[in-house]
Design a protein that fits this description.
Mean pLDDT: 79
Helix content: over 70%
Oligomer: single chain
Strand content: under 5%
Family: Belongs to the troponin I family.
Structural class: mainly alpha
Distance between the termini: 122 Å
Order of helices and strands: HHHHHHH
Protein name: Troponin I, fast skeletal muscle
Number of strands: 0
GO molecular function: actin binding
Keywords: Acetylation, Actin-binding, Coiled coil, Muscle protein
Number of helices: 7
Subunit structure: Binds to actin and tropomyosin.
Low-confidence stretches: none
Largest sheet: none
Length: 174
């Protein structure tokens, strides 16, 4: 028991020392960040002197607009570079796959399912699917009159041959 308690105390002391050192390092980094921020602001943003005349005010506005235009151009250029890099990153896996040559087909599990069950699974239980396509066809009754009129084909040909036959055809149509 006694040995275990000493080990636990040592570990606790070691943990507390590491935490205090880490806290000191974090505070130092924070101070450095604040100092770097102040230096950057002092370098890039000189104190604004309020213009006394209208001409000085217009000059100040023109200068500010010129700087804004420059920053917008830089932002646009950077945005285009980022978009180009994103597209390149997007297409790199495809290029790698093409260079590798063969595409490994995933092993698919064989499933035994009827066509009705498959369509029901795809369309959901709300839709009733019937694969009996003959039931959907329109029923047509055959007319026996046309079949009886055909009769002997030789007689039919003889009637239609010559000018008399053609005249009869046109009269029958009219």
């Amino acid at each position: 028991m006694f040995y275990f308690e000493k080990e636990e105390e040592k570990r606790h002391l070691c943990d507390s020392l590491m935490l205090s050192i880490a806290k000191g390092i974090l505070e130092e980094e924070e101070r450095e960040r604040e100092e770097a921020k102040r230096r950057y602001i002092a370098e890039t943003c000189p104190p604004v002197s309020m213009p006394r005349t209208m001409q000085e005010l217009q000059d100040l506005c023109k200068e500010i607009h010129r700087k804004i235009d420059g920053i917008d151009e830089e932002r646009y250029d950077l945005e285009m570079k980022v978009n180009k890099a994103n597209k390149e990153v997007e297409y790199n896996p495809i290029k790698v796959q093409d260079l590798m040559g063969k595409f490994k087909k995933p092993v698919l599990k064989k499933v035994r399912m009827s066509a009705d069950a498959m369509l029901k699974a795809l369309l959901g239980s709300k839709h009733t699917v019937n694969l009996d396509l003959r039931a959907n066809l329109k029923q047509v009754k055959k007319e026996d009159k046309d079949l009886r009129d055909v009769g002997d084909w030789r007689k039919n040909i003889e009637d239609k041959s010559g000018m008399d036959g053609r005249k009869k055809m046109f009269e029958a149509e009219a």
